[in-house]
Structure formats: structure tokens, C-alpha cells
Amino acid sequence: MHIAICDDNIADRKHLERLLQRESDRRKDTAGILYIDSYGNVDALTKSPMIYDLFFIDMTGLPPHGMETALLLRDMGVVAPIVLCTSSIRYEDYAKPPVELLYIDKPFKPEELTNIVNKVDALKKKAAPTIEVRDDLNTYYIYEDDFIYAYPDGYRTKIVLKNGRVIMQLGTLQELIPVLQPFDCFLLLGKKYVVNYNHIEKIERTYVLLSDHSKVPLSFGDKKRINEFKQ
Q: Is the pTM of this model over 0.85?
């Protein structure tokens, strides 16, 4: 499991590192090693946040503070559990549903950290598989149901997600198709559109209407392929 700590209090940051390292030592015989990266500022944390399975955050100095950092990570597409560590700021008071976050008080209690790591480990083992895509700056892990459709846009591939987000995938549509093959809901339409069948709302004579109200044109034989796909 890969864990990120982001805390502008160096003493607290080092203390949490030590506690998590002890937790890792207890798990090494069961292949439960924890890989821990520690950051003192948000810019460094957000360089490659998608590699982490768990975050511990407490930023109380210059903006963004901890809650703002957590929301920034969610906006970037991070789905991993985020734990806000309460010290001088009570982050629950800044909570903005429906963003799901966890909270823990300082000073840290080893048994509470163990419980959090156990829960995240269990979630990780039963998590649905994700689709890995990249743009210029970040790597994203997308759940199958969140992916509506994709199509070429110059030398890139535009991927449209259920939450309205658009990712400009590096590479061509043909390079994306093999990444989608393990999932059984994607089909090629209009010769240059990959569509999630589960997001098709209506089939018209010349296009399909998707759940985000987009219209994808149909080429000859596409309707037959859609009907065969349903069976």
C-alpha cells in the first residue's frame, strides 16, 4: 500500500512517519508493507497523487489548508481515502458533502492508525478495477461506469466522464482500445467513437443519445452491432 503524508508541521509529519513505519514492520510477514512518502507542501503532493492508496493531511499554515487540499485532490480525480488530521483546525467544520473524507485527531493513537490501514487494505482488495489514462500532467484511474465515451481530437483522445470532466488522453483512440478490452461494456461506433453501452439512452436512425445528452453518429452496420452487443 502506498501512503502519502502532507503536513506542514515537521514534528507531526516525522511522528506519523515513524508510527506508519512500525505498522509496516508488523505487516511485512503478510506482504502488507506500507510505502510512505512525506510532503511538507501541497505543490509537491499534487505532482503525482494518483499513485497513492491513502492520504493523511494536515495543512494549517499558508493556503490551501487541509480541507482545501483534500477537495483539490478530489477535483484532480483522486478516489483513494483521504484522512484529515485535526490539530489547530477542526476539519469537520469545513466538511462539504457529498465529498467523502475521514478524520482523526492528533496526537495519533497507533490503534486508530491500524484500524484505518486495515479498512483501506480491505477496500483495496475488493475495489472494482479501473481504467488507467494519462494527460500531460497526471494519471487518472477511472471506474468503468464513470466513462461515457471517447473520440479522437488531433493527436489526443478526448474522454468524457459522467461527472462532466473531460480528460485529454495522450495517444490515439487505437491505443486506448486495448486498455478498454478487459471491460465488457465498450463498443466502437461511427468508426471513431468508443462508447460505454451502459450510457446509451436512445438509439435513433443516425445517432445514439448518451446519458450526458451527447449524440454519437452511427455508421453503416452500427445498429446491428449494438443489437448483437445486447444479447
A: no
